[in-house]
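Next up, sample data:
>
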Amino acid sequence: MKTSSTILICSSLVATFVADAHDMQTNLKGAVQAATSDEYYSLERNPSVEKDNYVALSDDASYTYQFRMDLSTPLSMDLFDGTAAIDKCIGWDIGVSPTNFTWYGISFQLPVDAKGRGGGWNTAPAQPLKEDGYVQMFNNTAEGVAEYNFTTSADSPVIRARINNGLLWDTFTFDFTDGSNYVEHQSQQSVSCIIRQSDDGISRTYTTVVNPILHLSLERLSGPAPTPAPEPSSSSMAGTVFAITALASSAFLLL
């Protein structure tokens, strides 16, 4: 069973979902210690890190997860006639592409006790400059842009994310309490175009034509071994036998 939740990012933050991963560099030690500034995971420091309550991590008390990032750029459809809203565009603001969306400056921060178990990622989304970022055509889906395995003692891991190397941070809590082994979050952006404007060009009407979505998911691959049930004591066994005997006696009397 899959569960998901959605976080909408204000369009004033501009185009791209970002997340900071300084601690992916710091906490995953052997996994990404060789990363450089142009690797997928940013090396910059997060000034305020949200902490969780963790127990000491050991092989028999940890969870293994696969972190995955997908990117998509679905077109917005007109609610009245069902056509693509982009077909009504008459103009675009400077710096807004009419054909594609650029993801850049993406970084993430894993739980504080996370230990890396390897993975792979496209380096373009981590670039600090938009011109060096990951260009995705509209109405397109890119799967597995980043995949990374890690272990942690957290049964509901918290991953923090930052957008366009900005100041605002988003917190994604992956809650597996419903029995699911897969949880997904989404960060939705928006791209708008001009659909009407006055003759002097001062007054303009905009509409959203594309909703770029960054999909973050965790799949729980394994967890700690279940704690063995305690052996029943002799007194509890006696109670069980007594209850069965009493029930049998009652049934006999009813006959």
